[in-house]
């Protein structure tokens, strides 16, 4: 924004930039601070002031942005790079190639969530299409049997006659007991591949190979990748070191294409998009999906066909359309539906599976909606965290936690439901966190060591699944104490961002500037956890509105940057229950607002219009 320009407000007043900045501060809105070292480093590369500001406010050191800018995707997909940062992968490569060479039977055990079913599909496609190997089977775990290599899964595996190699994907890091039982029962090799933080006393260090980036020191670029991504690298390294397979261009291109399945999980599992590996893979995913020249797998053919209302398949499409669909069977039905959808090679069968899962997903939405309005629900919370007991929410706790976190602008939410066991009731839940420097899994680990509160948990920095004793208030009290303690440390180290302030990348005062900024934003995406979507602020005039009061309160408005403008802009905004009454009164009496929002284009039916997705709204006089 030009320092000397005057900005005209919807009511006709004009402010200098300095005056505007001061007015925004009164409304708890501030411009993001930039890292000057990063800003100076990227100046020769990015000519747009907005792009420079966005990048330099998200990267806190030159090393990370330099790794992204000066690394090619091919640099990440060679055995030297893989084995440098995950040295244990040499063990798995040797085992996999030896078993395949002897035509041994391989059993892949995958988790049931979106990351799990995609890892199952990656395993299937690598073995079937890259290794041209058929002597294997895939088991996808089921929620009703519990997480990890549980007792029921172990019992079911024992029904097999002979197994030469078991590979786990996206789970197994805290399941030494049952994995040891399986290894001894079959006298077979076991490779554990996972990405979750693990409990040291339960970790399978005694297996033939334990491939989990969390074993390595901080700064290892693989520490922020998904379970699907780990298995991808395990099988890729085995392929690269297998001299009996012809490494032709067609095969290599398909290896690159399989990254589209990894890309789904980067979004679904809330992985850090500042991480240069995730960023390169995500960009490749989106390039592949929007290519008109690629011959897609049946799954992507059907998904792209179903999503043709959008001109561009982006990270938002994956996050809101693709990942929830794949997740829903694992939440309330049978996750094998999603696995079959991902590996299907017949379009007719793929369409049939797609329709089945759409039905399941609608049931998931209905269950989620009905459970959240249950009058017997209980919650405790403050401005940062919230814990909830939501009755009849089994299977949808994670998505409820995510929705509440984003809708109420919280940093950490854990949603539980009550389960009856032979020893009484326990609470089973799922949590989400968007704290930049506080790991949710680490917090729960600490609470368990201090108070023995956990009956089993697993996860990573941004997401966790857990079971606790039936005392929600005690859990909240101790969770708050631990989070507050860590926030104080961050504050003392000047790392804490004030959660009551809404930080923006730019102030927008014209439709023309909005359109130009959209082009700038698209050029430096994709956005997600760690590399947040840009936020903007504008003073606006309310031309018309509709308020929908259902399971959540949803406001749509037509607004203008100036009362006399011909062009109207659509705003979407979620209204909290606690502010609903005051909000309705303001809508009836006031016409001017200050809005903090994400900026996007709605391309429905190829008709483009600007959308403002509201984050914070304040009525003005």
Task: Provide a concise account of the structure shown.
This protein is of the alpha/beta class and about 625 residues long.
Explain how this protein is built.
- The protein is an alpha/beta fold.
- It is 43% helix and 21% strand.
- A 6-stranded mixed β-sheet has the order 9-10-11-12-14-13, sandwiched between helices. Strands 5-4-6-7-8 form a 5-stranded parallel β-sheet. A 5-stranded mixed barrel has the order 17-18-19-21-20.
- Helix 7 (89-101) crosses helix 11 (227-240) and helix 17 (336-343) packs antiparallel against helix 18 (347-372).
- The longest helix is centred in the middle third of the chain and has 26 residues, at 347-372.
- 42% of the residues are buried.
- The model has no long low-confidence stretch (mean pLDDT 91).
Question: What integer is the average pLDDT?
Answer: 91
Report the C-alpha radius of gyration, rounded. 25 Å
| Count of DSSP H/I helices | 23
How do the strands line up in the largest sheet? 9-10-11-12-14-13
Portion of residues in beta strands equals 15-25%
What is the rounded distance between the termini?
25 Å
Largest sheet: 6 strands, mixed
Assign an overall shape. Answer: globular
Number of strands: 21
Structural class: alpha/beta
Stretches with pLDDT under 50, minimum 5 residues: none
Share in helix: 40-55%
């Amino acid at each position: 924004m030009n320092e000397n320009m005057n900005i005209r407000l919807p009511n006709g007043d004009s402010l200098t930039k300095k005056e505007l900045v001061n007015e925004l501060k009164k409304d708890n809105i501030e411009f993001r601070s930039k890292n000057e070292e990063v800003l100076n480093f990227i100046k020769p590369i990015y000519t747009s002031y907005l792009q420079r500001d966005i990048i330099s406010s998200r990267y806190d050191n030159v090393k990370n942005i330099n790794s992204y800018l000066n690394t090619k995707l091919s640099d990440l997909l060679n055995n030297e790079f893989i084995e440098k940062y995950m040295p244990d992968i040499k063990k798995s490569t040797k085992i996999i190639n030896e078993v395949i060479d002897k035509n041994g039977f391989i059993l892949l055990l995958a988790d049931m969530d979106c990351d799990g079913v995609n890892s199952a599909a990656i395993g299937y496609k690598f073995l079937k299409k890259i290794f041209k190997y058929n002597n294997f089977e895939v088991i996808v775990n089921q929620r009703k049997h519990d997480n990890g290599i549980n007792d029921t899964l172990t019992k079911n595996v024992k029904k097999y006659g002979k197994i030469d190699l078991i590979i786990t994907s996206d789970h197994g890091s805290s399941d030494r007991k049952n994995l040891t039982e399986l290894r001894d029962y079959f006298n077979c090799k076991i490779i554990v591949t996972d990405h979750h933080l693990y409990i040291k006393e339960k970790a399978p260090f005694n297996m033939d190979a334990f491939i989990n980036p969390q074993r390595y020191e901080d700064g290892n670029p693989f520490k922020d990748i998904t379970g699907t991504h780990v298995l991808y690298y395990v099988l890729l390294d085995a392929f690269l070191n297998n001299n009996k397979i012809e490494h032709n261009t067609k095969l290599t291109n398909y290896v690159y294409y399989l990254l589209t399945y990894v890309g789904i999980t980067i979004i679904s599992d809330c992985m850090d998009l500042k991480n240069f590996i995730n960023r390169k893979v995500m960009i490749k995913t989106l390039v592949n999906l929007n290519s008109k020249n690629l011959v897609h797998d049946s799954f992507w053919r059907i998904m792209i066909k179903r999503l043709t209302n959008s001109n561009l398949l982006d990270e938002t499409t994956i996050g809101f359309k693709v990942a929830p669909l794949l997740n829903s069977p694992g939440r309330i039905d049978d996750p094998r539906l999603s696995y079959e959808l991902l590996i299907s090679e017949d379009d007719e069968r793929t369409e049939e599976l797609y329709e089945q899962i759409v039905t399941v997903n609608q049931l998931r939405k209905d269950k989620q909606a009905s459970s959240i309005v249950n009058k017997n629900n209980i919650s405790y919370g403050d401005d940062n965290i919230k814990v909830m007991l939501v009755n009849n929410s089994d299977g949808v706790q994670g998505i409820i936690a995510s929705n509440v976190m984003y809708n109420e602008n919280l940093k950490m939410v854990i949603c539980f439901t009550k389960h009856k066991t032979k020893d009484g009731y326990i609470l089973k839940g799922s949590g989400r966190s968007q704290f930049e420097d506080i790991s949710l899994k680490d917090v729960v680990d600490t609470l368990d060591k201090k108070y023995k509160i956990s009956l089993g948990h697993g996860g990573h920095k941004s997401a966790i699944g857990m079971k606790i004793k039936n005392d929600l208030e005690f859990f909240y009290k101790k969770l708050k104490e631990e989070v507050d303690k860590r926030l104080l440390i961050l504050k003392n180290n000047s790392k804490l961002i004030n959660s009551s302030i809404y930080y923006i990348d730019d102030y927008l005062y014209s439709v023309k500037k909005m359109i130009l900024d959209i082009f700038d934003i698209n050029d430096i995406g994709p956005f997600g956890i760690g590399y947040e979507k840009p936020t903007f602020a504008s003073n606006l005039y309310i031309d018309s509105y509709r308020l929908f009061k259902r399971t959540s309160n949803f406001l749509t408005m037509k607004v203008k940057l100036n009362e006399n403008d011909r062009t109207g802009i659509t705003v979407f905004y979620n209204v909290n229950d606690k502010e609903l009454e005051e909000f309705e009164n303001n809508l009836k009496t006031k016409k001017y607002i200050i809005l903090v929002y994400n900026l996007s284009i709605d391309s429905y039916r190829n008709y483009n219009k600007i959308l403002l997705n509201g984050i914070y709204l304040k009525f003005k006089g």
